[in-house]
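User: My instructor asked us to take a sequence, write out its structure as tokens, and then describe one feature of it. I'm not sure where to start. Here is the sequence I was given:
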Amino acid sequence: MKISLITPAKKHSKNGNRTSALRWARFLRDAGHRVRIDVDYADQPADLMIAIHAWRSSTSILRYRERYPEGPLVVALGGTDVNTFLKTEPETTLKSMEMADALVCLHDLIAEELPVRLREKLHVVRQSALPLSAPRRPSARHFDVCVIGHLRDEKDPFRAALAARHMRASSRLRVIHLGKAHAPAWADEARAEMAANPRYHWKGEVPGWRVRREFGKTHLMVISSNQEGGANVVSEAVSAGVPVVASDIPGNVGLLGADYPGYYPVRDERALARVLERAETEPGFLKSLDRHCRSLKPGFTPAREAAGWMNVVSRIT
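Assistant: Let's start with the prediction itself. The structure tokens for your sequence are:
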């Protein structure tokens, strides 16, 4: 089939939508399909459209549906579709969802946020990642925690840095933050935090190999987001064997499970500091995080993600 894969992320972007589009296109091509990735749909012939983001791709979704009233259409829901635009732009967002033959989401709790009439066409396809190619060797001198995420509101990017300010003077904790500042003000804030907080180190935007190198030497990863649709960085950390400490938002709980022991109340740096202190000083606690993440690892394999997509496509074509 000719598949039009629409993503709001531009060609050289390193954000999650572009990364997902490239990975999904690879799965589909491996299955024998011809896939074209675009930011906007321009009336090109297609046997199937997969559109990432109900609201941001709404114009492309409508144009495809007008050209192909019976054409198969999959809409992959972004985190902001559910957490923001269902509330602020409900007409446009719901219209895209209703035109779709299938909806794809990335974690188990999305269904609870959707109207009942849409839940029957919802499929959970968790994002995947590859394991590291070499054994992990966490630092012996420091207790390093990494934050992998761009600097913008949804990510609550400085919560781990603020938590680090509350650590005991004897703590060896360092926060290593990899991610692009989405505006100059974010970069200014990161530099100011580094100047005031010797435990915080912002490295800016880095290539994927640098993230994987960090996974090889960090003790754990913090995902502090205020909202998520099911962050790929969680599957990357789990696949790399890195324990996770996460804000207790649905986007994290839907990936890690309700019984995961490494949550803290979202936006609460003092609570996060207590979890990080336990991880540093209680070997049993860090081992429990590691054990839980290892049990989740089979759910984040490329083979399982590819099979999920093949199931969705086969159901509507």
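For the description part of your assignment, you could build on this observation: The chain has two domains: 2-127+301-316, 143-300. Try explaining in your own words what that tells you about the chain.
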